[in-house]
Specification:
elongated, 164 residues
């Protein structure tokens, strides 16, 4: 019950400040483009999950982070691990678990990897966290510029003056 009251405060705020309403309308207009960027992100996550299964399916246990629930044994686990890595959560630990070699005392078929596995993780992290996430921001800014660009009476300036 209290959550409904809290949400109703947000609707009152939107109706009171026309600039805030305009900002929300920009996000609403940008939804089709955001879905396109989301689809592109899912395609690349699919590609990297398949590549992760191909490269790391033999690594079932790690010293730090790879275990029975977080691994590349099958596509589902790999996709969830890729989704987890896109948030930035412990991707260096996952990378170090896949880089163990016989010099480090790995067990063949359990946690042996390759020292060059860092390439997969660095490319994935740079691409997904920096390029794809920046596309989300770019789409919103592009829509904002298309609807309110260049005017002194734009939505952002109205919202800022109303807030003050």
């Amino acid at each position: 019950m209290f959550r409904v009251v809290r949400i109703s405060r947000l609707f009152k705020l939107v109706n009171k400040y026309k600039g805030f309403e305009a900002l929300l309308s920009v996000v609403q207009y940008a939804i089709p483009q955001l879905l396109n960027v989301l689809l592109l992100m899912m395609i690349f996550m699919f590609i990297f999950a398949v590549l992760g299964v191909y490269l790391f399916r033999g690594i079932t246990e790690g010293e730090i982070d790879i275990n029975e629930f977080h691994n590349f044994k099958n596509f589902g686990f790999a996709l969830m691990l890729c989704l987890r890595m896109i948030t930035g959560e412990n991707w260096p630990d996952i990378m170090s678990d896949t880089m163990l070699t016989s010099v480090d005392g790995c067990i063949e078929g359990v946690n042996c990897g390759n020292k060059l596995n860092w390439i997969y993780f660095v490319v994935y992290t740079l691409f997904m966290m920096n390029i794809i996430m920046q596309l989300f921001i770019l789409v919103i800014l592009e829509e904002f510029d298309k609807n309110y660009g260049g005017s002194e009476e734009g939505a952002l300036s109205k919202f800022k003056s109303d807030l003050e």
